[in-house]
Write a structure and sequence with these properties.
- By secondary structure, this protein is mainly beta.
- It has a domain at about 570-620: Dockerin domain (Type 1 dockerin domain, Orthogonal Bundle).
- About 5% of the residues lie in helices and about 35% in strands.
- It is built from 3 helices and 39 strands.
- The strands form 9 sheets. Strands 15, 16, 17, 18, 19 and 20 form a 6-stranded antiparallel β-sheet that branches. Strands 2, 3, 4, 5 and 6 form a 5-stranded antiparallel β-sheet that branches. Strands 7, 8, 9, 10 and 11 form a 5-stranded antiparallel β-sheet that branches.
- Helix 2 (about 580-590) packs antiparallel against helix 3 (about 605-615).
- Residues about 1-20 have low confidence and may be disordered.
Amino acid sequence: MRPVIRPTVGLFLSACLASSALADGTWEVLAVADGLSPANISGIKGAVWVPNQFNNPVIDANGKVTFRCQIAGPGITNTGATANHVVVVSGTGAPWTVVARNNSGVPGDTPASAIFSRTASPNNSIVTANNLSADGGFVVAGYMTGPGITTGTNDTATWFMPASGSPFLLAQGRDICPGTAGAQYPANMTASSGQRTNNNGESLFAMTLSGGDTVTANNSAVVMLRNGADQLIVRKGDAAVGFSGLTITPDTFGLFLNGSTYAFSGKLVGTGITTANDSIYCTNSFVSSGTYRVYAREGDPIPGFKGLTIANTSSISFGQNPVGTDGSIMLIATLGGTATPLDNGAIMTETNGVFQILMRKGDAIPGITDSANPDFNGKVFQTVNTTGNTRTNNGLFAFQGILMNSDGTSITSPAPATFVGVRKADGTVVTICRQTDPVPGLAGWTIGSLNGSTSICASDSGSVVFAASISKDDTTESGTAIMAWDDAGGLRMLAKATSLNASPFTPTGDTNFTGTPINQITLIGSTGNNGNGTGTGFSSTGWLTLRATDSANSLYAIARIQVGSSSSPCPADIDGNGTVDGADLASLLGGWGSSSPDLTGDGIVDGSDLATLLGAWGACN
């Protein structure tokens, strides 16, 4: 293990803020865990970060970072009923603000006098899944003790901490489900990965039910959790909207939210239903009455495309942000009917009954099928990685693409089979990079497979960020590079985490995160999304946060950087829906006198921010 002179780490934290700027701004190292350097948390004296206990950080539109971690120091214990070592902190460092801590009161003191505590497993007393709203509201969940709380029954809960205003309880174990005769939520009501939460603190939740009027035929539901007014979206056994005599069983996965628009899937039950026609896909977009409409069904014809159907097996999947602010739904569809094996897949949108094909299996891809590189000759588009694609609120679609031979056969090694691309709102397709391409700014290195591990994300300002496996041409080193792309700057490398390929696998990556070379770097992937159609690790305004690690020396860091433009092209569009309107005005007024949403960057929401918002009123340009 390489020796580290520990006292220099704290000095490095200060120095790194003035390090040389990259093409996209300067990396700011916000925290380094080495077990000795001060954590600098407001109200907790002498605390240090515990190595290897940083959860994935999230970042809001103003660059504020929030993460869960563990601390040590005087008066801090990590065992038993008095454990107080788990904290959720927020800010940009110097100092951090405590959002939640075990053996401290729960948000808003609701339930009254309850504290976060879990004696049997104190490390999990506070359960967070990196759920962040676009404007910086944060979901906190965990286990409690206190008056009226029974372990294993009602000792879990989820709260929303808005960017401004008071926190509120979203749900507690064994709460009564609305729209039922006493059916109860499950005992475990903690947040989960991939759960979407919007700026209003509304959170879509799939759950099992028990008690009251619950029987096997109605023991699950999809509920919109709200402050004091939860909404039952659909319950197992309900009459399926638009299908006489049939009922619906909602799926427990594939729930999506963008503002007030939600989408979910389910199965039809009843006479004439088989596995070839039971899957349905539902949304409340463009619904004037009732709770939802069915926009697609397995085996059905696709309106506007004569002869094409939604295939009856593995028919539809979704990317990271399929629900658009315009109410459209983006889907990855397997096609049936007249489709052939050469063209039976498509990226589509559905908007109030109108379908559009954005990309289709067999399409020629610019930069690949017209490439002079013989390795790409005869290659065409096959599909996208089902978790490796995302859409921004202004219509840019970023994806990991998979290629095939023009005759429909799979590409075998060593021919390149993957690439990263974007489809712009105007329909233009751009190839960002291809497997086997050289790494920008790193001579003698090439890009490896781009399928399944890129954690691709995109901002409303048009920047795309992803992770790429890279290796040195002489095979002595390999690792991961964080790449960025936009129209203005093209493809470039933001950071790299690499190591030698021979024992002891010494780290050789960037040194500006921990003060030593790093060998691991982590972006939030497909679970890092909020309920406003944007990412939680890469904000709509281009703020990126990640974890970087030198595992050889047990050094762990959290950092952030502004990617692309140093400011949002439309900062007054607080909710990221492409228009400055009454919802943005309400958000600004709700944060009056606080630090968020600060449009002018002076640290306070005041008259200058109001003037900025009113001056930008209307559609963003």
